[in-house]
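Try this one yourself first.
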């Protein structure tokens, strides 16, 4: 792409040459592009949806409805050629439908040449000009972007609210604008010594020509390209040992300078944690850029608001950087499987934050939000398309919360060691390939030797909840008999911890019949009694403890609290002074 931005009119003119490879087995007679800026027009689907949700995103609210002509966003396609010949196209809101002159056969390629003009909208959501913090241009979803075609067909989602899915490719982008602007974005700057702005190699004297300046970026093997520009950016660089070069762009000031200066060291530590725990970041560069309206991930960069407390600044940076693994490199379809992107990202970022700030329960917030949602009756399955939830709250907990719990609870099912091996295995097997839920669960099945499809099915495709309880504890011939009840419909393997009056503990492990195998022992210093599997159809399960009930002080289901049991009150029974036969009269 070769584009020119006029900072007086906020208009962008450009050309795009796209070589498109059809690697599918299908012949394509059409292709589609996204025209995301068109969402920022009164009456657009984004506008109407926001005005009809019970809990709209306050950044959107009814702001789009009130945009004036010189404030809206648009992308106009002025011409489009396929292999040198004009093709017919028409705009459908935020989509462009193109009827090919010549059908594109399997294993062949074609070249599209496009001329387009765009108006950068005032900043409403993610992209735009003049953000609240005064960043001139947040250029995300800014160019006509080819839609993804895969084994599920065309992914032609109109831009209603959120989540993106793109085609893998190599981007070669030239951006021309007033030379006072500093640009941060996706890719590696090719003409650093000409551009300067602290990109140049040390010792180089930059001689910029008078007039507009052209920036040349190349990004290989990414599925999107984003950038931001501001004349006041301070640009600083640090290197992650054995990792990428990190670039930071922020407007210096009272609310930013101190925190952004400290942020650099924490960002390095976060990259090191991620590389060691979840697989290695594959690109040479990553940029943290002040811009946009919150935090949004893009390949090789993020745009975040910068006037934050230090904790919040590190938190949002850790989250968006972590997206590089899930949204950036694995790049599952975020719109269909937001839990695999936002949820996995939340999970990994929270683990890293816990290690940096010495927190004990990084996922507690996810569980609490999920429990509250279940209680509210507003829960919808996590398998719903991201735009189609009836409330923003149900979307956000289904994707962030349930996605994070999905992993933390998977640790409980298959054991810590298998889990982390599995996370790295998933990353290394599926990077740059757009995996789906089945691909993930198959990696975990192979590494653990356990059947796990039931888990994916229940937790992602339904709203059935987990609830186990201790139903009875009785004495018989010198032994203790415990009956556990499955109160909820969602079956799970059970860890049952028994604490004796002398302070010692034993774990009773009840596998669930569907898994066909046991998780490995997680704690070698604790005696684990492996019991026969609980057939999931049975509402109750009884086990025998070969000790007198008088010796027992406490019996607890899931002491690690990794199981998302929606009622933990009935998980525990204590005998503080003496044993008394126990029977839960409600079951
Ligand atoms: Zn996110």
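Now uncover the answer:
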């Amino acid at each position: 792409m070769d584009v020119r931005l006029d900072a007086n009119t906020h208009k962008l003119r450009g050309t795009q040459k796209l070589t498109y490879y059809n690697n599918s087995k299908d012949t394509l007679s059409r292709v589609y592009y996204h025209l995301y800026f068109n969402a920022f027009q009164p009456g657009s689907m984004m506008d109407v949806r926001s005005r009809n949700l019970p809990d709209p995103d306050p950044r959107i609210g009814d702001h789009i409805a009130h945009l004036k002509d010189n404030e809206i966003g648009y992308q106009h396609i002025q011409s489009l050629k396929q292999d040198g010949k004009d093709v017919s196209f028409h705009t459908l809101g935020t989509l462009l439908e193109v009827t090919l002159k010549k059908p594109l056969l399997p294993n062949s390629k074609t070249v599209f040449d496009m001329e387009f003009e765009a108006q950068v909208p005032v900043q409403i959501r993610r992209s735009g000009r003049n953000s609240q913090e005064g960043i001139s241009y947040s250029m995300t979803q800014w160019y006509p972007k080819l839609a993804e075609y895969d084994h599920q067909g065309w992914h032609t989602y109109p831009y209603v609210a959120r989540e993106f899915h793109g085609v893998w490719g190599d981007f070669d982008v030239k951006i021309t604008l007033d030379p006072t602007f500093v640009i941060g974005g996706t890719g590696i700057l090719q003409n650093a010594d000409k551009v300067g702005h602290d990109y140049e190699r040390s010792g180089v004297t930059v001689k910029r020509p008078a007039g507009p300046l052209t920036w040349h970026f190349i990004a290989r093997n990414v599925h999107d390209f984003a950038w931001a520009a501001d004349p006041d950016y301070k640009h600083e660089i640090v290197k992650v040992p054995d990792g990428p070069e990190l670039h930071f762009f922020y407007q210096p000031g009272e609310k930013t300078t101190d925190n952004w200066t400290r942020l650099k060291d924490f960002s390095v530590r976060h990259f090191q944690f991620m590389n060691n725990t979840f697989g290695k970041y594959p690109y040479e560069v990553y940029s943290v850029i002040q811009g946009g309206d919150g935090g949004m991930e893009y390949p090789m960069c993020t745009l975040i608001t910068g006037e934050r407390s230090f904790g919040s600044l590190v938190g949002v940076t850790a989250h968006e950087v972590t997206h590089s693994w899930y949204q950036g490199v694995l790049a599952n379809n975020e719109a269909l499987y937001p839990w695999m992107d936002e949820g996995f990202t939340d999970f990994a970022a929270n683990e890293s934050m816990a290690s940096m700030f010495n927190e004990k329960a990084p996922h507690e917030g996810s569980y609490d939000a999920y429990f509250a949602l279940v209680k509210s009756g507003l829960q919808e399955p996590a398998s719903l398309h991201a735009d189609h939830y009836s409330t923003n709250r149900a979307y956000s907990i289904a994707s962030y919360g349930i996605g994070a719990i999905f992993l933390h609870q998977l640790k409980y099912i298959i054991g810590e060691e298998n889990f982390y091996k599995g996370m790295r295995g998933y990353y290394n097997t599926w990077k740059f390939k757009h995996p789906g839920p089945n691909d993930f669960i198959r990696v975990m099945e192979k590494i653990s030797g356990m059947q796990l499809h039931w888990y994916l099915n229940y937790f992602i495709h339904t709203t059935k909840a987990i609830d186990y309880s201790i139903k009875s504890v009785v004495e018989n011939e010198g032994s203790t008999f415990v009956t556990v009840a499955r109160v909820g419909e969602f079956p799970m393997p059970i860890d049952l911890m028994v604490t004796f009056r002398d302070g010692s503990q034993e774990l009773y492990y009840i596998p669930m019949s569907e898994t066909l195998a046991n998780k490995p022992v997680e704690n070698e210093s604790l005696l684990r009694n492996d019991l026969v599997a609980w057939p999931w159809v049975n509402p109750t399960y009884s086990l025998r403890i070969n000790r007198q009930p008088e010796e027992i002080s406490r019996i607890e289901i899931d002491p690690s609290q990794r199981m998302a049991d929606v009622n933990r009150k009935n998980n525990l029974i204590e005998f503080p002074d003496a044993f008394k036969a126990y029977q839960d009269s409600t079951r």
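Discussion: Residues 297, 319, 323, 342, 345 surround zinc ion (CB under 6 Å). The chain has ten helices and 32 strands.
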